[in-house]
Write a structure and sequence with these properties.
By secondary structure, the protein is an alpha/beta fold. The protein has a single domain, classed as 5'-nuclease (Rossmann fold), CATH 3.40.50.1010. A five-stranded parallel sheet has the order 3-2-1-4-5, sandwiched between helices. The chain starts with a strand and ends with a helix.
Length: 133
């Protein structure tokens, strides 16, 4: 089962190995799940991190060095996904598009826009919902 790990979960997991987001991240990269991200996630992660945590850039680099060995990097297709127009943040649309094209089953996220989408696949879930599967 493929799980796309959204940027907000990655940020929380990188900042602390305690708590629900980190546990959900670890579950998503462990059998029988396959954790995936797209280039848009990495770009957004770096952009947000540099703005909010510039003094902790080494923490991000260390996290990514390990995470990218466990995560599959998926492509963002040019073709639009059927309901991506329902996402207010246009920067999230390529993430949804990549997840749909790659056959992702779950989008692990804390983003309200994703969570309010009424789609079954890829199914948006919070870290707590995912841990309770």
């Amino acid at each position: 089962m493929k799980v796309l790990i959204d940027t907000n979960i990655l940020i929380s997991a990188a900042l602390s190995d305690k708590g629900t987001p980190y546990r959900a991240y670890m579950k998503a990269v462990s059998h029988p799940y396959r954790g995936v991200i797209c280039e848009q996630n990495i770009e957004e992660l770096r952009r947000v991190w540099n703005r909010k945590f510039p003094s902790k850039i080494n923490l991000l680099n260390d996290f990514l060095a390990v995470a990218l060995t466990a995560l599959e990097l998926i492509d963002v297709p040019d073709e639009k996904y059927k309901c991506e127009h329902n996402l207010r943040d246009i920067k999230d649309r390529p993430i949804l598009r990549a997840a749909a094209r790659a056959g992702v089953d779950i989008i692990l996220t804390g983003d309200k826009d994703f969570l309010e989408l009424e789609i079954e696949k890829p199914k948006p879930m919070t870290a707590s919902e995912f841990l309770n599967l």
